[in-house]
TrEMBL record:
EC numbers, comma separated: 2.8.4.3
Gene name as annotated: LOC112827820
UniProt xrefs under Gene3D superfamilies: Methylthiotransferase, N-terminal domain, tm_1862 like domain
Top EC class, one word: transferase
GO molecular function, one term: tRNA-2-methylthio-N(6)-dimethylallyladenosine(37) synthase activity
PANTHER family: CDK5 REGULATORY SUBUNIT-ASSOCIATED PROTEIN 1, MITOCHONDRIAL TRNA METHYLTHIOTRANSFERASE CDK5RAP1
Catalytic activity: N(6)-dimethylallyladenosine(37) in tRNA + (sulfur carrier)-SH + AH2 + 2 S-adenosyl-L-methionine = 2-methylsulfanyl-N(6)-dimethylallyladenosine(37) in tRNA + (sulfur carrier)-H + 5'-deoxyadenosine + L-methionine + A + S-adenosyl-L-homocysteine + 2 H(+)
Sequence ranges assigned to domain MTTase N-terminal in this UniProt record: 96-216
Protein name per the record: Mitochondrial tRNA methylthiotransferase CDK5RAP1
Length: 583
């Protein structure tokens, strides 16, 4: 077999528009680890497996086969219909143990749960002990260079683990999943020969096949970006059995094409799940006793369910006033306001959050709904990225500083007491000292409760990479970042001081990491709240003293704050409905 063989296949196994590709390499031909002698019987068995796989692969469908079958859309592959070069038995996990590590955003946490759901159904077992794992999968982030370097460092550590693997055990397989796999593709296979599989964000259904191919001693990859994959029919398996909250992915991809952002190239175009499938997942989470759901998407509030024909009318999208898009106006479909309305009705005792939104997609009807519903958290993430209109234009954000500030005022008028958070980039291409000072002034003007601030890291494939110059020296970026962090903390402390003396509803998460005698939870604004673990009254039964448990709602009177944490003393255990009389 040629060292690098490309096998094109369709999803069951067409159409051509959904062609995925598979990279196959013989491990022995390219391994940097010298092979050791083995008994002749073992060598004969390995050669037999390899020849059997090669013969089945060679006798499989040709490229012409896919051209002929490309016209008819077909279903996705399943365990009953394996590809021609694998048997159903080879797709089974056979109780091999999988160790999963997650890096990056909340979407990657949800992706981990989706990947595990797929593998679990294929007969794999989950382990939290790295040493006993047969398969190690890293769900990766590619948003900044530092995030990727973390993965390269981790692979270096795992290389030693794989090299020391006893020959008496099942060979250890290592896979890279998610955005880094999608961005770097074969560069990972070329640089790290010990990586066995790559799977992009839209290829998790293919994990059983990729692992089956890897078992034959080949490297395998599926990095297809789909126009319609949302994993709507897959119920994610919660990775933490004691969790009180869960992430629910409602859409994937992004169409905004901001000049600095790699997401459209690693996650693909926007596509949304059907509302019905989202509501079904939220209902199941409610039945499991979870008390908080965060709706996820790269541009979550641009949600548009076009699956129901009767709603695909010519009505255009309502944007925030003074905002524009980098793409043609979209029409029809069930929008984010409808989804938020329906999700909030599933369980009045379940809190609803959403992230990450774009400022352009906050029409008045969304703000009004957040104000009206008690279980929709009064917390909005509003990524600004810069306080300079000139830099915002270079970033292709679709708004000016003035339009952004006007939206802030409208949000605070519509939702009294709302908690605001934001993202900022220090040292973007062409950013001057004056541009930087405008960002500083925006931080002071708005007084965000939470912030996520980073130095600019240029990414290949982005518009900035092709058209702009990364001309701000690294030391200047870091100095500006430190200044932004300092100002943010000063202003956040001032903003949080307004909570002192107030009673707030807190969802208990568990014991504080710093003190076994304290509990921690999060308030409506998503700020961490610390309070003593003591007996308290229950509003529904004042004669009984109780201790708060994870998943309980409690009322806490705030006594002190910092830029990131509130502290107070607990008053009583309550419900979300009953708390409105106190907060």
């Amino acid at each position: 077999m040629h060292p690098l063989q490309c096998v094109l296949q369709t999803q069951r196994w067409g159409p051509l528009a959904s062609v995925s590709w598979l990279l196959l390499r013989t491990c022995r031909a390219h391994s940097s680890v010298p092979s050791t002698a083995c008994p002749s019987l073992e060598r004969q068995q390995e050669d037999g497996v390899r020849k059997d796989f090669s013969s089945r692969l060679a006798s499989g469908p040709t490229f012409q086969h896919f051209l002929r079958s490309a016209s008819a859309p077909q279903e996705k592959p399943d365990m009953e219909d394996p590809p021609p070069y694998l048997t159903v038995d080879e797709l089974l996990g056979r109780q091999r143990k999988v160790y999963l590590e997650t890096y990056g955003c909340q979407m990657n946490v949800n992706d981990t749960e989706i990947a595990w759901s797929i593998l679990q159904k294929s007969g794999y077992l989950r382990t939290r002990n790295l040493q006993e794992a047969d398969v190690i999968l890293l769900v990766t982030c590619s948003i900044r260079e530092k995030a990727e370097q973390t993965i390269w460092n981790r692979l270096h550590q795992l290389k030693a683990l794989k090299t020391k693997r006893l020959r008496s055990r099942v060979p250890l397989r290592i896979g890279i999943l998610g955005c880094m796999a999608e961005r770097l593709k074969e560069e990972i296979l070329n640089r790290e020969k010990m990586v066995d599989i790559l799977a992009g964000p839209d290829a998790y259904r293919d994990l059983p096949r990729l692992l089956a191919v890897a078992e034959s001693g080949q490297q395998a990859a599926n990095l297809l970006l789909s126009l319609d994959e949302t994993y709507a029919d897959i119920m994610p398996v919660q990775t933490s059995p004691s969790a009180t909250s869960a992430f629910v992915s409602v859409m994937r991809g992004c169409d905004n094409m901001c000049s600095y952002c790699i997401v459209p190239f690693t996650r693909g175009r926007e596509r949304s799940r059907p509302v019905a499938s989202i509501l079904e997942e939220v209902r199941k989470l409610s039945e499991q006793g979870l008390k908080e759901v965060t709706l996820l998407g790269q541009n979550v509030n641009s949600f548009r369910d076009s699956s129901e024909v009767q709603f695909n009318n010519a009505v255009s999208t309502n944007l925030s006033r003074g905002f524009s898009t980098n793409y043609k106006p979209k029409h029809g479909g069930l929008r984010f306001a409808h989804l938020l309305d329906q999700v909030s009705r599933v369980d009045p005792e379940m809190r609803i959050r959403f992230t990450s939104p774009h400022p352009k997609d906050f029409p008045d009807e969304v703000l009004q709904l957040i104000h009206e519903r008690d279980n929709i958290c009064k917390q909005i993430h509003l990524p600004a990225q810069s306080g300079s209109s000139r830099v915002l234009e270079a970033m292709r954000r679709g708004y000016s500083r003035e339009a952004y500030v006007e939206l802030i005022h409208r949000i605070r008028e519509s939702i009294p007491g709302v908690s605001l958070s934001s993202d900022f980039i220090a040292g973007f291409c062409g950013e001057t000292e004056d541009d930087h000072l405008q960002t500083v002034s925006l931080l002071r003007e708005v007084q965000y409760n939470m912030g996520f601030l980073f130095a600019y890291s240029m990414r290949q494939k982005t518009r900035a990479y092709h058209r702009l110059k990364d001309d701000v020296p690294e030391e200047v970026k870091l100095r500006r970042l430190e200044e932004l962090i300092t100002v943010f903390r000063e202003e956040a402390t001032k903003a949080n001081m307004a909570s002192v003396g107030c009673t707030q509803l807190v969802l208990v998460e568990g014991h504080s990491k710093r003190s076994a005698t304290d509990l921690c939870g999060r308030n409506d604004g998503n700020l961490k709240v610390i309070f003593p673990d003591v007996e308290m009254e229950d509003v529904n039964n004042s004669e009984v003293k109780v201790r708060a448990q994870p998943g309980d709602y409690v009322l806490v009177k705030i006594t002190s704050t910092s830029s990131q944490t509130l502290k107070g003393h607990v008053l009583c255990r309550t419900t979300l409905k009953d708390s409105s009389a106190y907060c």
